[in-house]
Each structure stands twice: as C-alpha cells, then as structure tokens.
C-alpha cells in the first residue's frame, strides 16, 4: 500500500539542543490504522505536533503525500484532519457553525457539506443540539464536536489524539465504525491512545514510544516476536516496554 | 486540617490587594478624569433637576421602590473558588466560621454602600420629606439595619436547593422591605416596630428553619461568587484590560443575520470574525461605546477640518482594541491547522476591520452633517476611515498577527 504519511529521522523539541523526540521513523499507509502508544511524557503529543506542522523539526522530516509542510503549507494541511485530546472550540459559534466553518475552511462544496453532515449528526446523536453553544456542552459532547468536524472533511489522513476519554460507549462505537469505514475506503489513521484493548482490536500496526524514542513497532505478531513475548496481549507488551525492558 | 479562618483572611487579603491594583490602574487611566468631569457636571444638573421637580413629586414612592429593590438584593462575596468543591467539601461542618466571616464583610460593604446611596438621594429627602442631620442619622440607621437583616436572612435563603423556592422567599423579602421603606419614609415609627417584630419572626423561625433542613448549596454559591467577580471585573474592564474576564456569549439572532457569507473557502474566516464580534460580550459593546464617545467629542469640539483628526483617533482606539480578538484564537488548534494560508487569515481580518471602520466613519459623518450641515467634512469622515484602513491596518496586523508560514 502507498504511504500517506512518512516520518523520516524526525528529531525535535521545544528548546534548542534539547530534543524531546529522537530520530523517529514511521509511516501511515493507505487503509491502515496505526496506534501510537506510550506513557505520559513519552513524546506522543510532540510527535503529533510535528506531523501537524505546528512544530519545526530540528532534523528529519514529516511528509504527507510526499510533501513537507514547508514545501506546500496549504496542500500539506488540507490532507488531514486532527482530533485533539482536549477539545478546543470557539465559544462564540454554535455546533452547526463549527461544522460549517470547518467545511468552508477545508474547501468543501456546500452540497457535499449538507449531504454529509446530517447522517453524522444523527449517528452521534447531536442532531437536536445544532444551535447549542460550547458552554452548554459537556466534555464528551465537546469531544463529539471535534470528531464531527474531523469526520466531515473526509480527508486522506486522520490524526487522532486520545479520542475515547469522556466519550460515551455509543459515541466510541460510532467513532470506531467511522474509522473502519474510512479505512476501508483508503484513508489512513494515526491514533494515539491509552485504551489498549480498543487499540489491539482496531489498529493494524503499533508504534510504541518510550522516552522520546520509537522502541517497538509493527503488527501485534511482530511486536510479540521482537519482544519475545509469545501470545502476549498489547497490554503486556506495552508494560514490558514501559518498564524499560526494551532498548 | 485546613484552618478555615486563616483561609478566609488569606483570600480576603488577596482579593483586596487585587482590587487595589486594579483601582490604581483605573486611577492612572485617562478615563477617570472624564468620570470626575461627568460627576461634577452631573451634580450641577442634579441640583437644577431638584429645583425643577413639581411639588407633588412622589418622592416617598420612588424612594420606597429604590430601597426595596436595593435591600432585597443582597449579594454575599464568599470568595469561593472552583477547587473548593473538591477540597473544602470534607470540612463542610467547619465552614460555618468561614461563611460567617464572609457574611460579616459583605455586611460591612452592604452598610457602606447603603449609606452611599442614601447620601446620594439625601437632597431629595431634604426637599420632599424631612430636613436636618438628625433625620439623616435616623434614616441611615433604619436602612442599614434592614440591609443587615436582609443579608443574614438571604444567607439562609441560599440553602434552599431550588432557584424557584429561593425566588419565592425573595419576593416575600421584597414585600417586607417595601412596607418597611414605605413606613420609614412616611416616618411611621410605631408601625416600623411592628415590622421589626415580623422580621424577627421571619429570621428566627421561617429562615432559621432552613439551617436545620438544608446544607450549603455549594454550586450555587460558587456560581454567585463567579457572577459577582465578573461584575466587578467588568467595571474595571472599562478602564483597563482584565485578563481574568471570561467572555460571555450572547446569541443576538437579529444581528447574526448580518453575518451571512456564501459557502466559500475564502469566506471561512470572515464569518468567524464577524460572528465572534457580534456574539461575544465586549467587542460589540466597545464599538458602540466608542461611537457614542466619538459623538460626544464631535459635539464638544468646534466644527472644522480638525474633526478629521478626532475621528482618526477613534479609528486608532477601536482597531487597537479589536486586534485582541485575534489573540483569542491563538490557542485554538483547529484555527491553527486549517489548510488556509496565514496571509489569507490576516487579510480577512484586515478586510473585516476595514468594513467596521468605514461604518464607524459613515456614522460619524452623518452625525457631523446633521450637527453642522457641513457635508464636505462629513463625507471626508468615511473616506478617512478608508485611508486609515489602507495605510495603518497592514502595519498593525504585521505587528499583532503572528505568521508561521
């Protein structure tokens, strides 16, 4: 399968000469969900910020469809949508206006927007809340707004940061079903999460980060082989890695 | 264990220092001078107004209304914080000390402000009811006593778990206060004593019961505290920027109809800016205030070409304030990663500001034209807005809007 996102030898951080992530190499291909896993502070969010083009790499690169953010900022960013860990909304816009703004910003046709938006709202049971403001939403509903905005665009690549916290079980299920649906029609997903049982069931490959480095990657079988843990669950492999047993 | 007494003292001191800081900022800003000017002019007109009032002016009735509303409104600053809902709940049984200190300081503030309001209205009392310093003391005493009663009783009222029940008791207090104030301004002291008896019964038996039946309504107390805090900040905000002030959002459906944009990528930001401007509490208010203040200046300053300089000044004031709207989006990750060039974002912002400035110029122009009949300067006002936005705005946006690409 063709890679959508290619991260090569990526090193970066917040202070010069003090990189937080070191020499990362990974890719997300068409029709696959890749789980990004690591302890708090392992460097997942920093990695994601580099992929989003919000941070500049010290060395190495992050390419989407062969182009870096520097090369073609607009084209780079129109290839993906992002669901942040903490939902951030515009206090002054209603749910409907959030969706509309997103559609406009990503250059969707009005007709496309209208045909996509209704089923999404119904699926996430938000169709009766389109005139609500963020201050009226619970944490889970805010998360749903972010998810709706990201799914609406139907990009090639989804970058998802811990989507399950605060979401109700039905919401989680709907979200996963959409992810699988888009995956089957060729999209790639990079998903950071701590909910390993879900990751194990839905991700095709895993990237396990520890202290800013990619220590293990591959399918579950490959992880088992490399960590020499036979029949281990993702949980067990992860704990093994997190305790610093793999270097 | 937490010493709740110390906690209160610490919070009160922090609150006072903060207020003092804001007060000095207010005193330093130029607006305080205009406020003093306004007070001086106001008091002259006040004296004139008093003379012009007819003899059958219903002073008693009006004073009664004012004070029954004032007495019924009994805000209590508890200085609670959001975290208290977690950290102070375990010591709820000992919070009595904390809250009684809070009530005491609210009583002090309430007594003082009651005296202040009464002093403001004293000239009316002098003319229509009764003159003499003894009367001033007696009226003040009774009003402050009633204020203290209301504060105590309303504290117990705050234990009721439903807003609607609280409202019922508040209406009851309003009626008592109304009768009280009416009797007071009619100088019917004998009846006042009867009302005192009723108030005693209310305090000890009706409101006193709530204490036994209900605990504290933490969330409501916190909501009240936050509302009061924001009220205070809003006042300060007229003079200086208050970062802690959370914007309140209003739906404003009628104005929002103006924010109609065709469904195009390039319009995304214009729609966003426009809606933020219309809906968020302060930007629209600022716009209107500055326009009105501009009217005042245009009115006060003799007509002529120099009026254009005045108008320029107001364009500058408005656009400087409005650039803070952009910083509101600074931490919004969606806003940062939209696949739209930063220059387009900034350009949309400039264009939108340009529109507002031209409207401002037009409004000034019309006002000036009505005032003086001088249509040349009047027409030049919106032209000045256009020139201003073409010359100044790009430089300002370069300074205020960060570019990443």
UniProtKB/TrEMBL annotation, chain A:
Keywords: ATP-binding, Nucleotide-binding, Transport. Residues 5-236 form the ABC transporter domain. Pfam families: ABC_tran. InterPro entries: AAA+_ATPase, ABC_transporter-like_ATP-bd, ABC_transporter-like_CS, ABC_Transporter_VariousFunc, P-loop_NTPase. GO terms for molecular function: ATP binding. This is ABC transporter ATP-binding protein.
UniProtKB/TrEMBL annotation, chain B:
Keywords: Membrane, Transmembrane, Transmembrane helix. Pfam families: EcsB. InterPro entries: EcsB_ABC. It comes from the Bacteria. The chain crosses the membrane at residues 20-47, 59-80, 101-124, 136-155, 167-183, 189-210, 283-302, 308-331, 352-370, 376-395. This is ABC transporter permease. It comes from Fictibacillus barbaricus.
